[in-house]
Amino acid sequence: MIYRKFFLLNAYTTKRITMMKSTKNYQTIPTFKMTSCLVIASLTLVGCNNDNDSDTFATPTTPKVATNTSLNFSILETSDLHNNVLSYDYYKLAEDKSLGLERTATLINNARSESANNVLFDNGDTIQGSALGDYQAQINPVKCDETLGIYKVMNALKFDAGTIGNHEFNYGLNYLNQVTGSQFNVDGITASPSACQGPNFPLVLSNVYSTRNKQPLFKPYTIITKTFTATTPDGKTVSVPLHIGVIGFTTPGIMQWDKKWLDGKVYTQGAKEMAEKYVPEMRANGADVVVALSHGGIDNSPYSPTMENASYYLSQVAGIDAILMGHTHQVFPDAKSTDTRFNATGVDKVNGFINNVPAVMPSFWGKGLGVIKLNLTFDGQKWVVNKPNTKVEVRTIQNADKSFVAVDPQVGQLINAEHQATINYVKTPIGSADFDMTSYFADVGDVSAIQVVNQAQAKYISDYIQANLPQYKAIPVLSVSAPFKSGFAGGNDYTDVKRGNIAINNAADLYLYPNTVQAVKVKGSVIKAWLETAAKRFNTIDPTLTTPQALISTFPGYNFDMFTDPNIHYEIDVTKPVGSRIINLTYQGKPIDDNSDFIIATNNYRASGGGGFPGLDGSNVIYASPDANRDVLINYIKSVKNLSLSNNGSSRSWQFAKVRTAGAVTFKSAANKIAIAQTAGLTNISVLNNDDGSNKGLADYAIDLSK
């Protein structure tokens, strides 16, 4: 696919045309004089470069179109694929039909069969999130002349454009520069004569800038031209070119979450500000329609240039015709959603509009496809979106009868070599355990899948301090971790490592993310605040209510940090309001002094402010390790060799404060797992039913808080 920059040409000035192949490699074509503007409507227009060139667009001309001509076209979106190319769980080494781009591809094919007037965009968090992604990034890194596996598949599916999510930065700028076929002008990256292999479609991102040259890291936008079929007022079918502007945004949280890669090299701008800057430019350069790829969800709290989910405010920027959202892993529109942000003024969660702008979010991991069917009318000068005739929906890979759509067979064929290599990698044995390590009941006290993570982190930091940081030797070292897989995606979304041999895939199941270990020095008061924030995981329970109350809130499980150390104990009183739930907090049997020093082993996400925990903003990090938490865990298991329940899976530091409730207190977990709760000593758990009706493999359980 060839993309071209346009330079305005006239009889008195000789200009050049630059051809750009794969959006990155430049070749100058011989100059020649023109007596009028050169316009080639069928070619793609690309926004300003990431160097200091100043590109001038020739406004594309549109062939004469009759007033009131009507055009319908579909905008298709994937988001947060997280390198789940196949319907396969590398942690369980088993098929998982509930996810995978190979099934989303079938939805894409079906949508395209309905209408040839379509474009397909990806909204980021694409390259990271599965063992396949880690294998190609860290174990057997993809070579410069090779295309990343998921991009190879997306090329075959003929994506038209994409943007960059926050997780694209997890492996560092050098890797991102390589696999996207870029040539970043940033410190630490050596310029090369030509770029490596990237995707065949343009990647756009408007709000991340290079510190070196104060220019966007990627192209901020692109304008692609599609020839679509339209209908004239007298019913005739005509072919017309439509110039579609595509602009991308990511969450500014990258500067905290991946500080070790980005600090001093890039910086972020506000999404709203960049939209206000570039959308008028896109229109001036001939965009008939503007689509915003927003790697962020909906948040109507007061605007800030650093806010994580800015889609609500993007909808207020004039000139944006559609918004494709992501990052929060939700479905929008969703009439049944209980998320209060979906009920904000101007948000239509039934029909899929935000401030009268059509918007969609298609879930995650390839579980769904976002579809916006835009209806346009030509008013004699420009194309106008007819909002009443525009339809927004999310199509899921699960059918009404609970079956799943078939896979697109070409996807598996394209990725088979990488898939098999990843399976071989994750099967590598590293130790054994005499107990099951699961997170099915981590929300109510089971630490079988968490204690070993905390032990590995604490030992790693303790050893480092003893060898390299003598000034901290006398300070106690503790560790926190969370149940990263806690059922958000359904009954299969839990850690479940069976007793017996432990392989690398099991360690990846125990520690889901490619974080790195960091240590923070905090006061006892910060530990209290830390735990109070983690306790947001629970709703406030009214003990006098006779009706059932849900224990678990919408606060993510990956933020439910907990200690699993015999030296520290605390209770969580869920009848108290948020911020005052942690009681009887002790260390070595004595109340923790607010002014006492502690060192906490955690990850780079939390230490740099991820999750909004008080007292954690990166300023109190005493050691930012280059080693991944997962690798530290693997090395720990290798050193211990034989894990036991008594030593590595049963040291619970917390419990619920005892309280009698008039009605049932309920929570959800995977179906048919009550025996696991009993093995963990949770005798106050009972089954209400083994099918909660969600079609996600979840069951309803109850907990007796008086025991």
Based on the model shown, name its key terms:
707 residues; single chain; 16 helices; 9-stranded mixed sheet; 40 strands; globular; alpha/beta
Structure description:
By secondary structure, the protein is an alpha/beta fold. It is 20% helix and 26% strand. Strands 4, 12, 13, 15, 16, 17, 18, 19 and 20 form a nine-stranded mixed sheet that branches. Strands 5, 8, 9, 10, 21, 22 and 23 form a seven-stranded mixed sheet that branches. It has a four-stranded mixed sheet with strand order 26-34-29-35. Helix 2 (131-139) packs across helix 9. It is globular, with a radius of gyration of 27 Å. The model is unreliable at 1-57 (pLDDT under 50).
**Strand tally, please?**
40
The largest pleated sheet is described as:
9 strands, mixed
What is the radius of gyration?
27 Å
Measure the end-to-end span. Answer: 66 Å
Number of helices: 16
Low-confidence stretches: 1-57
What share of the residues lie within helices? 10-25%
- Average pLDDT metric: 90
State the secondary-structure class.
Answer: alpha/beta
**What is the general shape?**
globular
Share of residues in strands: 25-35%
